[in-house]
Amino acid sequence: MHFFGSLFRSSIGRKVLMAVTGLILIGFVIGHLVGNLQVFQHPDHLNGYAQFLQQLGPWLWVARGVLLVSVVIHVWAATVLTLENNRARGPEAYRIKHTIRATLASRTMRLTGYVVLAFVVYHLAHFTWGSVSRESFKDNLELYTMQSDYKFAGIPVVKAGAEVHDVHEMVVLGFSHPLVSLFYIVAVGLLSFHLLHGLDSMFQTLGLRSGRWSGALRTIAVVFCVTYFAGNLLIPGAVLAGNLRPHTAGPAFSSR
Predict the structure, then answer these.
(1) What are the C-alpha distances in Å from 111 to residues 95, 120, 191, 193, 195?
(2) Quick count: other Cβ atoms within 10 Å of Cβ 28?
(3) In the CATH hierarchy, which fold is given to the domain comprising 2-249?
(4) Strands 155-158 and 143-145: what pairing?
(5) Per residue in 147-204, pLDDT tens?
(6) CA angle 151, 155, 160 (to 5 degrees)
(7) Which helix (H) or strand (E) holds 109?
(8) Residues 102-144: pLDDT tens digits?
(9) Helix (H, G, I), strand (E, B) or coil at 146
């Protein structure tokens, strides 16, 4: 108990908490993106995937609980560390020097973090809770009949003929609104920018970054963030370009 208490009481402990919770959240955003990219396949894939997650029952709520606790601890630790750094700053000359040496990503870390948090709440309200633009999703209240088995690790987890929620249609209809897509693109861009400094800080806190590996780890962070942003950009981009359409209107994806 003393060890866990020290994590919350000391600056080093709070940095460790930020690194560990950040790692958990990075794992989530990767899994979330990989799952969402199934929208480019037959609707059975995304709809079966969503149904499979729902079938996890209590385990899904355990995962949600871990994510929620991670977000709360991450935001709390970031806020406390920022306040401590502000109190520890010296004269104006030191603050100017510090700002010049700091990267843009690190200087905007708190701002991008809070914007991303606001986006996550909106994103959940839009696609998970259905409390935003409910009228545009009225068709999705009807169930979708699976045309083939959905398999996870080669094992059928959702059988053909099962009636599931039409998540594929909901995603496409949601991104068909330009303002929604624009907000999503900007928010994911800020999240990618947030992750850029977050990965650097995580490597430093966990003792993985040294003079020898610093450049390589920085390159890995940049490549990861650019790839993550591009992957998320594909979905609203394809919808707005007319390449990804509601499957009820014909073939869901066109490479025209």
Answers:
(1) 18, 14, 11, 11, 13
(2) 15
(3) 3 helical TM bundles of succinate and fumarate reductases (1.20.1300)
(4) unpaired
(5) 999 998 889 999 999 999 898 988 898 899 899 899 889 888 888 888 887 887 787 7
(6) 50
(7) helix 109-123
(8) 455 555 556 666 666 676 666 565 555 554 444 445 444 478 9
(9) coil
